[in-house]
Structure prediction request, 127 residues.
Amino acid sequence: MLKAIINFKNYRWAARITGFIGLVLIISFMLGQGFEMIKSRHASYDLLFLLTVFSFSFFAYIIGWIIEIVGGSLLTLSGIAIAFFVSFSEAFSGIVYVLLLSLPILIPGIFYLMSWRHKVIRMQSPS
Prediction:
């Protein structure tokens, strides 16, 4: 019983901390290099899509603080969408950009889902 409580809280805080670090990393990258790369190739639709998904991920991260299953699902789907989009985008080429832009969103989503799962298991187990 105590182990389930510790894992639930650890996963929740791991999601919160990695999500914060990931969002700071993505914002730093986009301000430093991302916008210039997209502007130089005249890829305005790429920029619009990435900004939409990043803002959606930001709100999903905030929702994850309150409701883990919703925030985790939305973050995981956003990370997968960004990975597919960046891998087929002309502005970004290479696996490095796929990992750099998708993993900081995908990892907190998985942690939120694991936190929710442990919370459900804890609630169902007889004590």
